[in-house]
Each structure stands twice: as structure tokens, then as C-alpha cells.
Write a structure and sequence with these properties.
The complex is a heterodimer. Helix content of chain A is about 40%, strand content about 15%. By secondary structure, chain A is an alpha/beta fold. Among the domains of chain B are: about 40 residues; about 120 residues, Decaprenyl diphosphate synthase-like (Undecaprenyl pyrophosphate synthetase, 3-Layer(aba) Sandwich). The chains are: A alpha/beta, B alpha/beta. Chain A: Belongs to the UPP synthase family.
């Protein structure tokens, strides 16, 4: 009896979800993507901002007897796929962690950007490169500047590529910005609070304060830590850790992460007055 | 509606039910396996979990949802288990400061013996630590997180510009991570980075645990506090002991094979 009640609840819930989808999109233009509907994901409950730590390219290559650059190439293709899926599903911001400041300690480490091999401009993707520009080679700085310039009028999806990035560096940079405002007599030190600091973070400057903090943070390859990524912004982010290596992270895995995000009861840590 | 359409609708409905039944059964099976494993671990029947090598676990953080943190019985039980397992240094955190207030009488040297006995706590040590069954426990709240960083930023700016009033006052402020760490310590929000953080609550998020101290912390979600299990904690500590951290460094070659010149045409 318990099982039949559970089944009827599930069937009723699914029927309601489908009705919601039809009602929501009646006369509104494009219906929600089929993949979302089939997975039972409600478009109105999608995260607005997803952050991803792209981990596992090297291991993926090693498991297949390939060279590390092959792993990174496969990782780049996986990133393109995730960008296009995020765009199609209406996710407003996507932040990816490609190269950290700690990675400089790797022998022969040469930072570069996992650029998608398609044009972002026609499909409304705005590119932001966040991280310490002084640690990037000149060619990378120029490429980043050009990409940001060419896509500055886009707004459908904010794509933030974190390279030469560190969460602590970002917090210190925010302090420096506030210090410059104090120096310019625009602010007093005692006025500095959480909100002002949050406003000076790189993600706020890129995508606006509304989209600064990720709702969902995904890390692949089985590691369960932030590794100095979005330390401030991830306070209320749903953390999703998967054993899948990044090059294997495709639509099915992404849907699993979104489904997991939707199904958990979320509280936003609001404190009582 | 025609007969074939009705039949098709029935078949699709049946398939839908079968899929949901399969998923529900799978979830039930997973839960049973999990509970069985916890029981076997608690009973000491699984040999690999009998001896925990906690030499790498210098500092353990426990993040609890504030609503669940009011359950002091469970918190006490959790601390007791961790003490049994040999954990020496713990940080308890909830965003609203419920845990801090629970232990506040003892941090301030209260003479309320009944309250002390109910929580079975030994003598207090200093303003933010207390001792419990050979463990040192820190209690943190949201004011030690983002608020603490804001206070440290205020201090940095004040100190910098007060120092500059005797000079030309126009130098670009150059704060470093070390400066921020010192400022955090000065405002009472410094502290070690936990090696492992266990989250208790419905949501899988760290609820604003001090951001500065979370760089390489292993994070594990343990579920609701009311359902906590001894075996689950042992398993978490065991899994942690098997982890390898390279802290961003690597012994190999790591780069992406992308040409910036090619990519400039992509945009």
C-alpha cells in the first residue's frame, strides 16, 4: 500500500509538472527543451548561475593511454557542449575554473584559455575572463581583452572563464578596490561592509551582483573541495561532486546535477533579525 | 479520442509508472545498503574501518544547519563520537550562532553548574575555545565569516591610510594575502584551515563558513543531523584518510592546446 501510494504521488507529480510546463509556455514562444522535461526538471527551478571546476582531463588521457594535451582537447570539447547546453536551457551565468594560481607551480605550466571553438557573438554569449591579468602571458591578455570587447553587448549568457584565478586573491583585490575609493574620499573605512566587498568581487563586476554567486557548483573527477575557487561566492551554493572525469561530463551528467539541485531542500542561510 | 490513441496513452502511462517504480526501488535499495554498511562499520565487522589513521586530520570542521543546531543532544552525541575516534581539534559552525550561544555560558566562565553538567563540558579555556573530553573546540558563526572579512578590510584600510597621513598619501594601496591574514587575526577571525568539513543539514552547502579558511578543505555532506550515524562518520574519516591532495601542484605537464590567435577569430 505504501508503494502504491508512493507511485500514485510520483505519477501525479509528473502529470502536474507537464501541465506546469504547458501552462508556463503557453503563448510564450519556445517550449522548454525536451531533455529538461523528460528529466522532470522544472525550467523555473533551474539555477541561474552554475560554476564548474573542470577537473580530470589529465586522468582521462592517462586512462586511455593518450597524452595530456589530448585530455585537455577533450576537455575543451566538453566545455563547449556544456556552454551550449547552458545557453539552450536558459542558464544566465556559467563560471568555469580553468587554471589556478597554484597551477603555476606545476613544471612547464603554461596557462591558456579553454576557448570554445564557436562564435559567441551571434548566440548572445558574453565572455568575461576573471583572474590576475598580470600572471597571464601577453598573448593571453590580448586574447582575453579582444574576446571581452567583441562580446560586450551580449547578455543572454555570461560566460566567466576563471584563469590565473584564486578566491583569496579575489577577496584581496576587492579590498584594494575599496581602499582606492577610500583614497579618493568616496568612502570611509568604517563604511566597508559585506555588501560593499561583495560588489567589488570579479564575478559581480562581470555579471552583476544578482548573478555574482553560483546557485550550483559542480566539481568533476571525484574531488570534494573548492580548491580556492569562489570562496566568498559559494556560501549558499549547492555543491555537487561527481566521479565523472570532465571530458566525459555531457548532457546526461549535467541533467543529473540539475536534477540533484532541484530536489534538495534549499535554505539560503538567512539569519533571523 | 480514437481507440489507438487511448491505447498508446495507456501504454505510455504504464511505462512512466514502471520507470518511476524502478527508480524508487533503486533508491530504496541504495538506502538499505547504506544503512547496512553503517551498521557493519559501527559493529566493527568491516576490518578496513577498524583503524582510522587520523594523522592528516589536524582540524575538523562541522557545519550544522542552524535549525538543526538547536538539537544539543545530537551535538553532544556527535562530539562524544568524535572524541572516541581520536579527533583532537574541532570547529563547530552554524550561521546564526546557535552553537556559540549554547556554549557561551562556559566560554564566559558561567557558574551555572546545572547548565555545565547538562552539556558535560569541562573548564573553559579562553574566549573562543573550550575543552571537551580531550578535544579543543572552536565555535564560529556568520559573524566570523563574511562579516569578519569586512572588518579585516576596514582595519587594513584604516591602518594603511592612517600610516600614509605622514607621507604624500597618494601611494596605490598594496595589500597582500598575508596582510589580509594578519588583519583577520587582529579582528579575531583568524584560525587554521580545516582539513575536513562535514556538513549536517538538508542543503549541501557550507552556509558561509569563513571563506578565507576553505581553500583546500575536503567537504562531505552527511545529511540531516537527526539521522546521523556513527558508521557514516567513520566512513567519512576513512575516505578522507585515503585522499591525496596536490594543492594545485602536479608532477606532470599541464597545458591546454589552444591557440589564442585562432580563438580571436572565433569571437
Amino acid at each position: 500500500m505504501l508503494l502504491s501510494r508512493s507511485l500514485s504521488r510520483t505519477a501525479r507529480r509528473t502529470r502536474l509538472q507537464l501541465m506546469d510546463h504547458r501552462r508556463l509556455h503557453a503563448g510564450a514562444g519556445a517550449p522548454p527543451p525536451l531533455a529538461l522535461v523528460q528529466s522532470g526538471i522544472r525550467p523555473e527551478s533551474l539555477p541561474r548561475h552554475v560554476a564548474v571546476v573542470l577537473d580530470g582531463n589529465r586522468r582521462w588521457a592517462q586512462e586511455r593511454g593518450l597524452l595530456t594535451p589530448d585530455g585537455h582537447e577533450a576537455g575543451r570539447r566538453a566545455l563547449e557542449h556544456v556552454i551550449l547546453l547552458s545557453h539552450a536551457w536558459g542558464i544566465r551565468a556559467l563560471t568555469t575554473y580553468a587554471f589556478s594560481q597554484e597551477n603555476f607551480r606545476r613544471p612547464k605550466a603554461r596557462p591558456s584559455l579553454p576557448w570554445p571553438n564557436f562564435s559567441c557573438t551571434p548566440i548572445g554569449i558574453r565572455v568575461h575572463v576573471i583572474g590576475d591579468p598580470s600572471r597571464r602571458p601577453r598573448s593571453l591578455q590580448d586574447a582575453a581583452r579582444e574576446a571581452e570587447e567583441q562580446t560586450r553587448n551580449n547578455s543572454k549568457l555570461h560566460l566567466m572563464l576563471a584563469t590565473c584565478y584564486s578566491g583569496r586573491w579575489e577577496i584581496v583585490e576587492a579590498c584594494r578596490e575599496l581602499a582606492r575609493r577610500v583614497q579618493g574620499s568616496l568612502l570611509r573605512p568604517e563604511d566597508i561592509d559585506e555588501q560593499l566587498l561583495a560588489g567589488e568581487l570579479r564575478t559581480s563586476a562581470a555579471a552583476g551582483e544578482e548573478l555574482s554567486c553560483p546557485d550550483l557548483l559542480i566539481r568533476t573527477s571525484g574531488e570534494q573541495r573548492l580548491s580556492n575557487f569562489l570562496l566568498w561566492q559559494s556560501a549558499y551554493s549547492e555543491l555537487y561532486f561527481t566521479d565523472t572525469l570532465w571530458p566525459d561530463f555531457g548532457e546526461a551528467e549535467y541533467l543529473k546535477a540539475l536534477s540533484s539541485f532541484q530536489s534538495r531542500e534549499r535554505r539560503f542561510g538567512q539569519r533571523t533579525a | 479520442m480514437s481507440r489507438p490513441a487511448i491505447i498508446l496513452k495507456l501504454i505510455l502511462g504504464l511505462l512512466w509508472v514502471i520507470i518511476h517504480l524502478t527508480i524508487s526501488l533503486f533508491n530504496l535499495w541504495s538506502l538499505l545498503i547504506y544503512n547496512l554498511q553503517c551498521y557493519l562499520i559501527s559493529s566493527g565487522l568491516l576490518r578496513k574501518y577498524q583503524y582510522l589513521h587520523l594523522d592528516r586530520l589536524n582540524y575538523l570542521a562541522i557545519v550544522v544547519d542552524s535549525k538543526e543546531a538547536k538539537n544539543t543532544v545530537k551535538i553532544r552525541q556527535l562530539l562524544s563520537w568524535l572524541s572516541t575516534m581520536g579527533v583532537k581539534h574541532i570547529c563547530l559552525y552554524d550561521i546564526e550562532g546557535v552553537l556559540k550561544r549554547s556554549f557561551e555560558p562556559f566560554m564566559n566562565g558561567s557558574k551555572d553548574e546545572k547548565a555545565r553538567e547538562s552539556l558535560d563540558i569541562g573548564a573553559s579555556m579562553n574566549h573562543s575555545h573550550y575543552g571537551y573530553k580531550n578535544m579543543v573546540i572552536d565555535c564560529l558563526s556568520g559573524s566570523d565569516g563574511k562579516e569578519g572579512i569586512a572588518k579585516a578590510a576596514d582595519l587594513l584600510c584604516s591602518t594603511y591610510f592612517n600610516g600614509e597621513t605622514h607621507g604624500n598619501g597618494k601611494k596605490e594601496p598594496k595589500f597582500t594575502e598575508a596582510d589580509m591574514a594578519s588583519a583577520l587575526k587582529a579582528v579575531g577571525c583568524g584560525g587554521p584551515e580545516p582539513d575536513l568539513l562535514l556538513m549536517y543539514g538538508p542543503a549541501r552547502c557550507h552556509l558561509g563558513f569563513p571563506a578565507w579558511r576553505l581553500r583546500y578543505t575536503e567537504i562531505m555532506h552527511m545529511g540531516p543531523l537527526k539521522s546521523m550515524k556513527y558508521g557514516a562518520i567513520v566512513k567519512a574519516l576513512y575516505n578522507f584518510s585515503q585522499k591525496y591532495q596536490n594543492y594545485g601542484k602536479l608532477l606532470g605537464f599541464s597545458t591546454l592546446n589552444c591557440s589564442p590567435a585562432k580563438s580571436m577569430n572565433s569571437f
